[in-house]
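Cross-check.
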Amino acid sequence: MLVPALQRAALTLAVVASISSVLRGRVVKVVDGDTVRIRHTPLYPLSNGERGCTGRKLSECTISVRLYGVDAPETAKRGDPGQPYAKEAKEYLSQRVNGRIVKVKVLRKDQYNRVVGRVTTRNRFIPFLWTDLSRGLAGEGYATLYTGGGAEYDGNREVLEKKIRRAQERRRGIWSDGVDGYVDPAAYKREMKARRNNGQGR
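Predicted model, tokenized:
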């Protein structure tokens, strides 16, 4: 029987080896506005992912998934304050996926060993329609375009950019005070890191 660390490694390798495959899983935790943890349910609907983590850490029995193409505001962590609308972005995602079965089109693995994928959830009112959460976040003004290393767009970069422009024009969410004063999450993390380093050097 595999020990938890080996189980986790085997699970990650199996997922990443299946690039462009589609996973199904139940969201057991919304980490922030663009990251969730899912319990893989390969036998869905025979298995619905409601069991499997009893007495174990989430990292040992779930997969961390980063939504493709977008970057939501940074939440508070390591003593750093969160960015404006970080809570709203997380709440938006939570309301749509927490505890629900989602589909994840696997695109790649990132530097934090997370699966980067296109996460979709079934429409509550029209069951045969699936909603792309990255597009939703972009359109509601809860995320900007992710342009960092290894960025993945699954052929939807223009769609995401269009939704972001509309959100900017309508001053939704992170764009409520206009575009010029907005600090993107990557720049915010660099700023917070510099402040911590300066503080340690005094």
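The first helix runs from residue 4 to 16. Residues 33 and 93 are 6 Å apart (CA to CA). Passed to J.P. for a second look.
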